Amino acid sequence: MKKEDWQEKRRYARATVQKLVRYRIVHGERPDKVSRTIRGLMTNIGGGGVLLAVKELVTEGLHISFNENVVQQNWLALEMDLFPGRPPVHAMGKVAWYQKSMGRPDYQYDVGVEFKDISEEDRNIILDFVKRSIS
Fold it and tell me: Could you tell me where the beta strands, DSSP code E, fall in the chain?
């Protein structure tokens, strides 16, 4: 696709951030199979998703994007601290894409995550955070 043919498809504005995020990989077919909590770096966020920088794609046998069948996508259970002194925002998401990271020696991959299950309250907190960050 040529650059001039590309159009932004996001419904929500995004803010550039540098915040630690906690996530767990949840097996797409067996939700009782969950990885340990992993730390990543959130580099941007919007009402529809988040961009993470992560150190590894596979943790405890669970791939960040798909399970062993490569048919069913795995989930990411995200916990994000956006405002000091306030409870974290929680969301369930699926990986939309990932690629080798450029220019971040501490993190090996960039991972685009689309929120699939998030409360309206948590989405509104994200929208408020983005609004404050870009204004």
Answer: 14-26, 38-46, 49-54, 58-59, 62-63, 75-80, 89-100, 109-117
**Distance of alpha carbon 51 from alpha carbon 4, whole angstroms:** 23
CATH 3.40.50.720 fits 12-134, yes or no: no
Alpha carbon separation from 87 to 49, 52, 102, 111, 119 (Å, rounded): 19, 20, 32, 24, 14
Give pLDDT tens digits for 34-63. 999 999 999 999 999 999 999 999 999 899
Q: How far apart are CA 55 and CA 39, in angstroms?
A: 9
Give yes or no for residue 16 having a pLDDT over 90. Answer: yes
Q: Which long-range contacts (CB under 8 A, 24 or more apart) does 9-14 make?
A: 10/46, 10/48, 11/47, 11/48, 12/46, 12/47, 12/48, 12/127, 12/130, 13/46, 13/47, 13/130, 13/131, 13/134, 14/44, 14/45, 14/46, 14/51, 14/130
What's the rounded Cα separation, in Å, for the pair 26 and 130?
A: 27
